[in-house]
Amino acid sequence: MRILNQDSGKTIKSVLIMLTPSEAHELSGKLRCINPEIGDHIHVNDENFTHELTLSIYTPDNLDIFVRKIREIIEEDV
Q: What residues are paired with 5 via a beta bridge?
């Protein structure tokens, strides 16, 4: 797992995510649809589109799909 603050570009070691029931339902449904073979990702926003989660699945076989900075973050702790 890698958590990246997209505003600062720094990794985060721990995060608390608090969701409303509708946001949790949306996240749950969208997670089932991610296809790691094509570098797929999902976005879940709050009602006002002021907060966003972006999630993707990485494997050793799909790292080349991601941009260099993301690959470096994933590989730095491997």
A: 10
Which helix or strand (DSSP H or E) is residue 57 part of?
A: none
The two three-digit tokens of residue 62, written as one number: 């799909």
One-letter amino acid identity for 5? N
CA dihedral 45, 30, 68, 59 (to 10 degrees): 150
The closest of 78, 77, 73 to 5, measured between CA atoms, is: 73
What residues contact 65, with CB distance under 8 A and at least 6 apart?
38, 39
Here the tokens at position 4 are 């990246």
Region 20-35: mean pLDDT is 92
Give the bridge partners for 54, in sequence order. Answer: 43
pLDDT for 12 beyond 90: no
The residues pairing with 40 across neighbouring beta strands, listed in sequence order, are none
Cα–Cα distance between 21 and 46 in angstroms, integer? 11
